[in-house]
Backbone:
């Protein structure tokens, strides 16, 4: 039995969809805060259990009988270390054979502020004694595609990544890799650095957007403070604006680049390229 935490989220759902092509639905557990949010998965035969990262008792119940667990990192930046620790401790109590954790690309050397909680989680995981595999996920191309509508509306794509190259991939690619790892023997102790086969700068991203949309959309490179201010003006919450601006600055320092192709090696095919994902976003 494989438990996927955060199963109502974008990544968790995709992992479960990939697992469904590899094993019976009755052997997959969707662990979610609100079970009603995954009624569609329950209809497919997936086992649904209530689980809250902040409530250890709920995790103990959700992990009962589990052989493997995928800990999808929490979206609550600033609270993730404690939440992840709760999951790891519950996994230890459950005696699972493997816990897979979605970390950050090159977490040990990354210039992104996001690295801190991931490193703390990796350290706790290592000290816990739970057999574990770390999936250090790079950037999702969807993170930048979300800015396509405002870029088209305002006639410019803004950021502060400079000429940093970004080796992103589709969220579905990372989800498939997690499903492969969860269903392949001999994964304990491994650390994967996962990123897309192709890399691009944000200038190249804007050029691809211009080509496919038929509109001239230049990339406007700001400093970190200016980009954060622009995001705040657009209505983003301050923590998210700060996170995105810091991540772009990290990209300018190479924090979102990797050319080892471990992701495509895991999934047995090339990662989904920017052009194809851009075309889908513009449909």
Residues:
């Amino acid at each position: 039995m494989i438990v996927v935490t955060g199963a109502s989220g974008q990544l968790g759902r995709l992992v479960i969809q990939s697992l469904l092509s590899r094993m019976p639905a009755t052997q997959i557990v969707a662990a979610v805060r609100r079970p009603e949010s995954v009624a569609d998965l329950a209809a497919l035969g997936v086992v649904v259990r209530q689980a809250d990262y902040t409530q250890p008792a709920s995790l103990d119940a959700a992990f009962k009988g589990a052989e493997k667990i995928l800990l999808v990192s929490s979206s609550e930046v600033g609270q993730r270390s404690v939440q992840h620790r709760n999951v790891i401790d519950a996994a230890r109590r459950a005696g699972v054979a493997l816990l897979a954790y979605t970390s950050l690309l090159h977490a040990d050397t990354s210039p992104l502020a996001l690295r801190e909680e991931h490193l703390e989680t990796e350290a706790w995981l290592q000290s816990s004694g739970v057999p574990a595999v770390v999936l250090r996920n790079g950037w999702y191309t969807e993170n930048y595609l979300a800015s396509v509508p405002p870029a088209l509306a305002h006639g410019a794509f803004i950021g502060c990544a400079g000429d940093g190259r970004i080796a992103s991939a589709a969220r579905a690619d990372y989800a498939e890799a997690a499903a492969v790892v969860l269903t392949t023997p001999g994964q304990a102790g491994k650390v994967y650095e996962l990123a897309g086969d192709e890399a691009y700068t944000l200038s190249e991203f804007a050029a691809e957007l211009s080509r496919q949309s038929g509109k001239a959309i230049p990339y406007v490179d700001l400093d970190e403070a200016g980009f954060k201010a622009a995001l705040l003006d657009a209505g983003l919450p301050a923590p998210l604006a700060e996170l995105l601006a810091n991540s772009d600055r990290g990209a300018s320092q190479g924090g979102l680049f990797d050319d080892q192709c471990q992701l495509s090696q895991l999934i047995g095919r090339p990662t989904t390229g920017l052009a194809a994902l851009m075309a889908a976003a513009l449909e």
Q: What stands out?
A: The two ends are 38 Å apart (CA to CA). The domain at 2-137 is CATH 3.40.50.720 (Rossmann fold). Strands lie at 2-5, 28-32, 47-50, 68-71, 98-104, 132-137, 157-159, 191-194, 219-221.
